[in-house]
Specification:
single chain; globular; four-stranded antiparallel sheet; 142 residues; mainly beta
């Protein structure tokens, strides 16, 4: 193919990752500090998510069902529900000693660089080589 079927315009800086939320929608993450939910048939941005720290580095993005998880430049995982533009959960990981710590003298905070879901667990990796697994227990209405 010479050209894409559809282009999505709306981010103001580099897009670092895209993921399918379902058959009709994708989520994109950008260093403009936002995530966007797009309809793949129309190219229309359905929602913009903000509330995580991401202004200069590529960070992790993971989707499962109606949930969107985003890593941050502050070693924090931010969780969104597709219907809300603001975070429903923020969890800052405790700094953990890493084999890479001795190589880093830059004073940077650890950044979440990758995320993956399995069932109700979210696995994250950061730029210091640390992998963490979180249990996200769904809330139930009484």
């Amino acid at each position: 193919p010479d050209k894409p079927l559809l282009s999505f315009l709306g981010h103001t800086k580099s897009v670092f990752q895209v993921a399918f939320l379902d058959k009709q929608r994708i989520v994109s993450g950008s260093v403009d500090g936002t995530l966007k939910l797009w309809d793949i048939d129309t190219g229309f941005c359905q929602r913009t998510y903000s509330g995580h720290e991401n202004r200069s580095k590529f960070i992790g993005l993971g989707v499962k069902d109606s949930y969107i998880a985003c890593g941050g430049e502050d070693n924090t995982i931010t969780l969104y529900h597709e219907a809300l533009g603001r975070p429903i959960l923020r969890h800052t990981l405790t700094p953990t000693q890493s084999l890479l710590d001795h190589d880093r003298g830059d004073g940077d905070l650890r950044k979440i660089t990758s995320l993956a879901w399995i069932s109700d667990r979210l696995c994250s990796g950061n730029d210091y080589g640390v992998i963490s697994v979180l249990d996200l227990i769904p809330c139930q209405t009484l």
